Amino acid sequence: MKRLLDSLKISIGMLILFVNLCAISPIFASSQTASEQTLIAAFLYNFLKFTEWPEGSINNEITLCTDKNSTFEELKAISGKVVQNKPVQVKFISQSDSYKQCQLLFLPRDISADNIREWINLTKGQPTLIVSNASGFLDMGGMIALINDGKNLNFSVNLEVTRNSALKLNAQLLQIAREVRGR
């Protein structure tokens, strides 16, 4: 009976996440083959929904940042959406800009591994959720790695690094992760 309940909880969690993924983008909902960037934008939106930041670390809006050299235009679809009763703002920033206003920092694989490591070191211990689709991202000290296996987009979590930054990820999110390190 407990297995059945656990299985049901996981199924419901996955259904909730899928419904939220579909709601983020009309392109995703109406197209049979969504681009990887559209899917990543949907995942990032849901990471914002299922993450808890420390008291006082969010002001009037939730800010999703990415490297200013990124060509990730699909992120603009998230701008203005409401998460945790606050509007989402998308910013394209450089390492010399203030990252402290960023609740989520997405580091796309098209920036160098050295640049990704620099971002990770710069934000270490700060309440900023760091996400990337770069290969080996969790091993670099990242928090959530997006993984495209050619058929599906999944994610893995480094829970220890996330907790060290005073961030809490919703249990439903952790249940559907492909891998959770540091439980």
How does the SSE layout of this entry go?
Layout: H1 2-24, H2 26-30, H3 36-49, E1 51-52, E2 62-67, E3 82-83, E4 86-93, E5 104-107, H4 113-123, E6 129-132, E7 144-148, E8 153-158, H5 159-164, E9 168-169, H6 171-176, E10 179-181
Lateral arrangement of strands in the main beta sheet: 3-4-2-5-6-7-8-10
The chain-level structural class is: alpha/beta
How many individual domains? 1
CATH topology: Rossmann fold
Radius of gyration: 16 Å
The percentage of residues in β strands lies in 15-25%
Proportion in helices: 25-40%
Annotated CATH homologous superfamily: Response regulator
Tell me the series of helices and strands, N- to C-terminal. HHHEEEEEHEEEHEHE
Low-confidence stretches: 1-33
- CATH class annotation: Alpha Beta
Measure the end-to-end span.
25 Å
Overall geometric form: globular
Shape-level CATH architecture: 3-Layer(aba) Sandwich
